[in-house]
Design the sequence.
């Protein structure tokens, strides 16, 4: 039999298995906690700190996606302190993100943009160096833009744990940290199988599919390059 614990989240009592995280327990009772780096069972690394919550008796706010539940725990997910901390974290992420939203492929379908709207982030107060890295568009399928990467690690996890390929990983350290194939290789030179799972889980436009127009330009520039151009299905005569 599964051992259970009872805790209180936003004044609602909930009984959940002992191995649940606070985030999982909150979702059981329909409480929405924002997440960014979290992918259930695949990427649970507590990197982005968007899911911070207040736990009675704890000194600091905790990342609910990795914090286990315990008997009698009292959690608050929507206090002023929590909202301000999430907002500050989001601004820090945005401060080093190329915010050309209007020209971005993911405009209107970007998790970072949605979070900024939900948390009412209009301006980014933090100023400083912004990364300027080379966009890797050498492969025939995938474009990798490190300037938009928020280092959530979702693509790294899905590439290694789900697909078992391990092409993408964290490279360099500190401000220079990047998600890329090892030894700064292009996606075109890495053993990528172009399954597209990294694109599926990317919350922003750091990884995206190459458009047909870009593929045509590739073919014009280098006719020997392997180019896949999708064409509309042939229309059959009746
Ligand atoms: Fe919990 Fe990113 S979702 S730290």
Sequence:
């Amino acid at each position: 039999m599964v051992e259970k614990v009872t805790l209180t989240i936003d004044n609602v009592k909930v009984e959940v298995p002992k191995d649940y995280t606070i985030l999982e327990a909150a979702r059981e009772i329909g409480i929405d906690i924002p997440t960014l780096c979290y992918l259930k069972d695949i990427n649970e690394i507590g990197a982005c700190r968007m899911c911070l919550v207040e736990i009675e008796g704890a000194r600091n706010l905790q990342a609910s996606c990795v914090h286990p539940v315990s008997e009698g725990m009292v959690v608050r997910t929507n206090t002023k302190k929590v909202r301000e901390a999430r907002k500050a974290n989001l601004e820090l992420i945005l401060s080093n993100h190329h915010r050309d939203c209007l020209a971005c492929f993911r405009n209107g379908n970007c998790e970072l943009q949605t979070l900024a709207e939900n948390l009412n982030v209009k301006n980014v107060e933090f100023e400083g160096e912004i990364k300027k890295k080379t966009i890797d568009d050498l492969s025939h399928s995938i474009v990798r833009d490190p300037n938009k990467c928020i280092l959530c690690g979702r693509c790294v996890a899905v590439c290694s744990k789900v697909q078992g390929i391990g092409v993408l990983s964290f490279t360099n350290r500190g401000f220079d940290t990047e998600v890329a194939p090892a030894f700064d290789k292009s996606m075109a030179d890495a053993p990528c199988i172009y399954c597209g799972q990294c694109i599926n889980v990317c919350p922003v436009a750091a990884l995206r599919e190459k458009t047909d127009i870009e593929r045509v330009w590739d073919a014009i520039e280098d006719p020997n390059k392997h180019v896949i151009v999708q064409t509309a299905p042939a229309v059959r005569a009746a």
Remarks:
- The chain has two domains: 4-91, 133-223.
- The CA atoms of residues 101 and 107 lie 6 Å apart.
- The domain at 4-91 is CATH 3.10.20.740 (Ubiquitin-like (UB roll)).
